[in-house]
Amino acid sequence: MRIDPWGTTQVTDYERLREEFGIAAFDLERFPLPQPSKIFRRGVFGHRDFHLIHDAMTGGRPFSILTGLMPSGKMHFGHKMVIDQVLYFQNQGARVHISVADIESWGARGIPFAETRRLAIEEYILSYIALGLRAERCEVYFQSKRKAVTDIAFTLSRKVNMTEMKSIYGFEDSTNMAHILSPLVQVGDILHVQLPEYDGPCPTLVPVGVDQDPHLRLTRGIASAFRFYNVTLTDQGHIGIFVKGGQFSEKDVQRLLDKAESTVLGLGYSEIRKLPRYRALYLPGGTARAVPEIQAALSPVELKEGGHGFYPPSSTYHRFITGLTGSKMSSSEPDSAVFLSDSPKDGAEKIMRAKTGGGISAEEQREKGGEPWNCSVYEMYLHHLSEKDSHLERVYEECVRGGRLCGQCKKEAAGLIKEFLMDFQEKKEQARERIDDYLVEN
Ligand code: TRP
Ligand code: SF4
User: Which partner from 24, 55, 136, 179 sits 20 to 30 angstroms from 144, CA to CA?
Assistant: First the structure.
């Protein structure tokens, strides 16, 4: 199985996806969040290294969130799911970086830079502000204008070759070079926030749809390739800290081992075995939890030694919302989505026309009940329209038992959409005055 970030496949089997790509299951029991918004209660199904974010957040330590957008048309409710997460973490103290992927738009779709800029601002950034994005500790930048992003992309490209790029993305010999370079620019997006002139090495969360996971695998691989130390839990249950091969002289290795030793002493490890011949330190009796802790503690050492000390970027994955027509929700199919720029009347009408999980006739539905798990209107309640769990449960129960018919149910949803869009669009107009507080030109 290969995920194509620029393709149109519809994902339905999340469990299989998690298994195949090593995405961990996300749940609020494992990661209790203060007042989790509904996207965490219902939408997020997986993560990589979310504990780094959770630990920082609950420990009151700094962390960052980075997201990017490649506007391929109008913003719809599917796109809103990433921003719902960004807003939550901004309120929890995250620093927010938003990349307008104009290089990717050019590389993957041939959209001119000026056009991407216009669409990004009109359709997305103003919407983010209307949805509640605040200007403090938040910036929106353009890939093509931020030299740190393209510079680090070039530097980091040293650690990935064409065979890997082909196997991750399925690139062909005929793929244009700008397209091949654009995921490396995304790697630059994700890792440049950890440069000292930005936030410095720190946990960074990238909330995405699972279609973006290839970029995360690429980024995590590169971030780890640039670390000086390799920290692992050995089969014997020890923690091994190794200085990586190649670039270091014997003297360097000696110094790096000494620095690692004093670092882990500082963490409270007293039993340390140093094996310079193996470029290694062993700490007997370690736990898996200790690995990221030690990696984090070694990050400033690497920075002082001229490295980057990158934390592996964390990610969360949200479900895709089914389109109102029953296929994929897509900007290129006007009826499949309610766009945030649809008039309240049009939005309501789209809901009234949506494909549901109801019976063929009212009688049949009263008798057999509906199938909310097969219903695009239910998904709108689930992810966007129904805040309270008690309301959502009522919709579900009534539907399954046949007490709720689609006509009435759609009317309720249409009313909610209408109200939402009226309020949202007013806020979006007001957002225009404040847009300069968000945009940075380099
Ligand atoms: N590739 C993303 C998309 O297609 C956009 C993007 C660019 C991005 N840079 C990013 C997403 C960094 C997450 C993180 O929408
Ligand atoms: Fe969907 Fe509502 Fe019809 Fe049930 S009653 S199938 S939730 S529209």
Answer: 136
